[in-house]
Amino acid sequence: MENLALIDSFSEFKDDKQIDRVTLMAILEEVFRNALKKKFGSDDNFDIIVNPDKGDLEIWRNRVVVADGEVEDPNEEISLSAAQKIEPDFEIGEDVSEEVKLIDLGRRSILALRQNLISKIHEHDNTIIYKQFKDLEGEIYTAEVHHIRHRAVILLDDEGNEIILPKEKQIPSDFFRKGDNVRGIIESVDLKGNKPTIIMSRAAPVFLEKLFEQEIPEVFDGLITVKKVVRIPGEKAKVAVDSYDDRIDPVGACVGMKGSRIHGIVRELGNENIDVINYTSNLTLYITRALSPAKVTSVKIDEVKKRAEVILRPEEVSKAIGRGGHNIRLAGQLTGYEIDVLREGAEEDVELSEFSDEIEGWIIQEFSKIGLDTAKSILEHDINDLVKRTDLEEETIRDVINILKEEFEE
């Protein structure tokens, strides 16, 4: 088999793998040099001439002519009589260049060459894919559902690259079918062995930030800056935005008329509730805004302990805490302060935990879940309302109210 014919047969990989011919030739030279080392012990005295335009490759072995019977290293030296069969006028001490045909390497070596070439091309492809996706970390990417597993969804992009969307990186309400297009951010890219592992996330805060960039022109153009995003995926998110142009209302621009601009983002995130607030360096005002939709009466800040005491009217407390405590938790993450909620007139109130000797802990916990953790906060509510908002029986709630009333009647 001639060199050119073998190169042409190898070139089929170029079409399959989208590898450019110059790179293919470089890989070929490396593969051939490895084969020469195995066959002859060294490739130092071989010249490999690659012509990427023609797709041709020549191998020449260089040896020194020595007297007949004095050849010590057949790879480095050639006897005078053997040299003169190549060219009759060769003399001792001269260099002889002789072309090596692939057929001279033997069938087994040629098969090994092919396997080695396949391996090297795969390695090259994986390196290219790794670099390509490493540059896309933190960016939105779209791929199609190929296979659904228990712990992850396997996606394929248009180039056939595999992307993994683990269960914990999905929004809880996500439901996919084979063939669905899925958007997320490329969260991480790692090389495991020689194969790149590409992880997508839809739960990361940066996914929401990038959706703002995609869907809101002022954010894309840099007129509005997303300062910080915090999320409980599929439940609630808070996004702090700012603009250096006083003529632009960043919140209004992000939300749009009747929520028109943010609607697509909310739908993409499984109806996640998104609060967009104006960022400010005024910490008191920032904490106040972060607790929206609750209306804050006053804020007391301890910058050393990174804590804030927030006073609210009793009817605003449950809004500040939010369902499942989501609102106050996200407000704390957004501002970087641990927020304690107090009711107006709380100095005359008594913490519900003070009644732990009379009221069981799980009952106190049930009231706490809806933002009622003092005696007065419970006494201010109608019994029927408390029955609806908690998992407690009416009789249990009446017993609690009687205990609390006794405290204030004494």
UniProtKB/TrEMBL annotation:
Any one GO CC term of the record: cytosol
Gene Ontology biological process: DNA-templated transcription termination; transcription antitermination
Keyword NADP: no
Subcellular location: Cytoplasm
PROSITE patterns, alphabetized: KH_TYPE_1
Similarity-based family: Belongs to the NusA family.
Function: Participates in both transcription termination and antitermination.
Protein name in the entry: Transcription termination/antitermination protein NusA
Organism annotation: Aequorivita sublithincola (strain DSM 14238 / LMG 21431 / ACAM 643 / 9-3)
